[in-house]
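#onboarding

Welcome to the new folks! Below is a worked example of what a typical request in this channel looks like: someone posts a single protein sequence, and someone else replies with the predicted structure as tokens. Don't worry about understanding the tokens yet, we'll cover that in week two.

Example request:
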Amino acid sequence: MFKLPPTRIYTVNLPKEKRAYCPKCKSHQTMKISIYKAGKRRGTARGERRHAERKRGYGGQKFPKLAKPAKTTKKVTLIETCTVCKKKMMNKGIRIRKFELIAV
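Example response:
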């Protein structure tokens, strides 16, 4: 199998718009592509409060802090938005170091 040298950084360039199938329109339409970004964390959420409570006091972390993370890349999830009906579809994430949306 062909293997890339680990020293170089590889960039994936994708167009900001592409034609794809829209399940709401039931036809191929032009889709705008954007990158998914996680929303703001709420400190009042139940899980967030539970995690803070378990971390309190003596005994250290609830989960051990990782000294060295296992992964060197993050997964990028793409959101396709139909330009006709404005329906949004999320694509499965791709693991890549650098990702760019380019205008074509």
